[in-house]
Design goal:
It is a single chain. By secondary structure, this protein is an alpha/beta fold. The protein folds into three domains: 68 residues, no CATH class; 61 residues, no CATH class; 174 residues, Rossmann fold (3-Layer(aba) Sandwich). A six-stranded mixed β-sheet has the order 7-6-5-8-9-10, with helices on both faces. Strand 8, helix 8 and strand 9 form a beta-alpha-beta unit. The protein is elongated and about 90 Å long.
Length: 360
């Protein structure tokens, strides 16, 4: 059993090392999206060898005795010389994936702001009991108890150190219920869906949202996600609609910020929630007048209540890219504003580091 546990631990370390090595590829390709369950992520690994049987020499084994040469139905057909590609599907927990991401991107742990009034029951295995299921048996405590009993009874021999636990020796892990503060966060994803934001731009946003979700859910007990799309007007949608909708026409970014603030004021009291708005756009806005409205909304209403406002500008051949310049000009000294330009899929990893690397 110990050998199995040791081999399993070694295999998990190999898997984590491989995922970390290929993290940029996973981020840029979006390969893990759709493989994420509630607790685990299914990951296809290409470079871990599948265990095989190895045969030793057997000079008189089956099929090697005397006999007549028969006909081979496959004779004359040329066999392939190269090995097939081996894909191994492994599952790691969302927690483990977030830890790998944090190590590779050097992300600081987030410290939730404020105090949370809500509490949640946590079951922690802190105690030891004399009864319990065998799956929770504490082998080390059981062994020590049996050893003490045998020494006291004079039945233990150092020359023949055999320790045999009896029922009275068995000890089991037991849990206690503790009430802990429950840290909660809300993510508001906002995206420009005007005609200049094409399929490729939306796939980049989708990949970034996957990794943002993974990291924030690693840091908070409870996470809500809300989705806002906008062109000249903004509306709230579900996750699937968020990534599939494409509109045409002009862009008024302020419409998204106004709707975001309505959602936050209605459903997420600032004293109980850690707030993370993320906006994705190609940088086009209808007018400088609306841009000034956006800057005022951010300064007067949004920034005072959020942990961090993040803006990622996805390059598009149709977008002017002006909006990120306006944000830099107005909020260069604001720690709660994180800005990133995403030139292509290969820039996703660096963009995530820029957006999440402040530990806000």
């Amino acid at each position: 059993m110990l050998n199995i546990d040791r081999d399993l631990g070694r295999f998990k370390r190999i898997v984590k090392g491989q995922v970390r090595k290929d993290l940029r590829k996973y981020m840029s390709s979006g390969e893990l999206i759709g493989r994420k369950g509630k607790e685990t992520v299914s990951i296809p690994l290409h470079k871990i060898g599948i265990p095989r049987l190895r045969f030793g020499e057997n000079k008189e084994g089956m099929g090697q005795g005397e006999g007549e040469e028969g006909s081979d139905p496959g004779q004359g057909q040329k066999a392939g010389e190269a090995e097939g590609e081996h894909l191994l599907e492994v599952e790691i927990t969302v927690q483990e994936l977030a830890e790998i991401m944090a190590e590779e991107l050097e992300l600081p742990r987030i410290e939730p702001k404020g105090t949370q009034s809500a509490k949640t029951a946590k079951h922690k295995y802190k105690g030891i009991a004399t009864e319990g299921p065998e799956s929770l048996r504490h082998n080390q405590r059981t062994f020590k108890r049996a050893l003490k009993r045998q020494i006291s009874a004079g039945t233990f021999s150092p020359k023949r150190p055999v320790v045999i636990p009896i029922k009275a020796d068995r000890r089991y892990r037991s849990f206690v219920v503790e009430q802990e503060p429950r840290s909660s966060a809300v993510i508001v994803y906002m995206m420009d869906v005007s005609g200049s934001m094409g399929k490729e731009q939306k796939e980049i946003v989708r990949s970034q949202a996957f990794w943002i979700d993974t990291w924030l859910r690693h840091n908070y007990d409870n996470v809500d996600a809300r989705f806002v799309i906008h062109d000249a007007a903004a509306r709230e949608v579900d996750r699937d609609t968020f990534f599939r909708t494409r509109e045409s026409g002009g862009t008024l970014i302020s419409s998204a910020y106004k709707l975001c603030m309505e959602i936050l004021k209605k459903d997420y009291p600032v004293d109980d929630w850690n707030i993370y708005p993320f906006h994705f756009s190609d940088g086009d806005n209808w007018s400088q007048s609306d841009t000034r409205t956006c800057m005022k909304l951010l300064k007067d209403e949004m920034l005072p209540i959020v942990n961090q406002f993040s803006y990622a500008q996805v390059d598009s051949q149709y977008g002017s890219g002006q909006f990120i310049k306006d944000l830099k000009e107005n909020f260069a000294d604001h720690e709660e504003v994180a800005l990133s330009r995403v030139a292509n899929r290969d820039a996703i990893l660096d963009s995530i580091r820029e957006l999440l690397g402040r530990g806000k």
